[in-house]
Amino acid sequence: MYSAVIPVGIYLTNNSQTCMYIADHSECGCLIIDSIEQYRKYDVSALKNLKAVIFINELSKDQLKSLVNPYVSIYTWKNFIEIGKKAKVEIEFKARKEMQKPGNCCNIVYTSGTTGTPKAVMLSHDNMTWTVRCIRNMYLDKIDDRQKGVSFLPLSHIAGQIVDIMRKYIISTKEIYNIYK
Fold first, then answer.
1. Contact indicator for 7, 107 with CB cutoff of 8 Å
2. What's the CA angle centered on 9, arms 64 and 3, to 5 degrees?
3. Selection from 155, 150, 153, 119 nearest residue 7 by Cα
4. What 3-state class would DSSP assign to 126?
5. DSSP 123
6. How far apart are CA 179 and CA 181, in angstroms?
7. pLDDT recorded at residue 42
8. How far apart are CA 78 and CA 118, in angstroms?
9. Residue 150 region by backbone torsions, left for phi larger than 0, else alpha for psi between -120 and 50, else beta
10. Among positive and negative, which fits the CA dihedral 161, 165, 167, 169?
11. How far apart are alpha carbons 168 and 38 in whole angstroms?
């Protein structure tokens, strides 16, 4: 949320044509995927904005070596996190956080495309914070730190994002509640 990047989820069941359409249409700069099978759905040379591919699951050195190409940098999640730990980002982080305003795009969710090409739906920062604040107000007194939640929705679904990504804000902090008071 504070990184000033716009996340876009893609269903694991999407075919290559749909994956390429969404990645191109959203001007994807960083593709985070779980497997070589998902990676093969993309022609990375055709995605002009793509700078990096990050594999969440570990790959062997041979697997990584087989994926190297001149178009994009490829990382494992572990490598990517290590790069982030070494980076000096405090000033950039503060600037990006201060750039965010109500009405600015926070997230894009694509429709399933069952009636044609998937459609992009923009969710603004104030939309997301309002939704999280409402959930927080409804459930904060009913949820404590001892309880655990299990999400079955993918991150390409807005409810999955709210539960999985924004959950820590719903339960453990008032910061998000105060952003757009």
1. yes
2. 85
3. 155
4. helix
5. E
6. 6
7. 95
8. 32
9. beta
10. negative
11. 28
For residues 49 and 6, is the Cβ–Cβ distance under 8 A?
A: no
- Which segments of the chain does DSSP mark as H helices, in order? 16-25, 36-39, 61-67, 77-86, 90-99, 125-139, 158-164, 167-172, 175-179
Query: Tens digits of per-residue pLDDT, 39-51?
Result: 999 999 999 999 9
Say if strands 105-110 and 52-55 run parallel, antiparallel, or are unpaired: unpaired
**What pLDDT shows up at residue 2?**
58
pLDDT one-digit tens code per residue, 76-86: 999 899 988 88
Whether the per-residue pLDDT at 115 is higher than 90: the answer is no
Q: List all residues 6 or more positions away from 72 whose beta carbon is below 8 Å from its beta carbon.
A: 44, 47, 50, 51, 52, 53
CA–CA distance from 12 to each of 9, 37, 151 (Å)? 9, 10, 16
Residue with the two structure tokens 């070589």? 36
Average confidence score pLDDT of the chain: 81
